[in-house]
Design brief:
This protein has about 90 residues and is an alpha+beta fold. It is about 45% helix and about 30% strand. A three-stranded antiparallel β-sheet has the order 1-2-5. It has a two-stranded antiparallel sheet with strand order 3-4. It is elongated, with a radius of gyration of 19 Å. The two termini are about 20 Å apart.
């Protein structure tokens, strides 16, 4: 399912117009992204938790040349599925 299919499904299930459903989906994504940027986690009970994981700086190797290269520290988004979501799949 891609983003447009998600918007269409939200519109169908909720009875909203496609434009309204699109704005709602965008608002959810924007809000989650803004909270993660601030370093906050977003907990959706029954669905899961979005959080930010910090990666330390490290040294790697260039696969083409084999030369050592430094990999800078970064923040990565992560998602942990909630119990209700996990249970619904099995």
């Amino acid at each position: 399912m891609n983003k447009q299919e998600l918007i269409a499904a939200v519109a169908t299930v909720s009875g909203l117009a496609k434009g309204d459903a699109s704005r709602a989906v965008e608002a959810v994504f924007d809000t989650i992204g803004a909270q993660l940027k601030k370093g906050e986690e977003v907990r959706l009970v029954g669905f899961g938790t979005f959080a930010v994981s910090k990666r330390k700086a490290s040294t790697g190797r260039n696969p083409r040349t084999g030369e050592p290269m430094s990999i800078k520290a970064s923040s990565q988004p992560k998602f942990k599925a909630g119990k209700v979501l996990k249970d619904s799949l099995n």
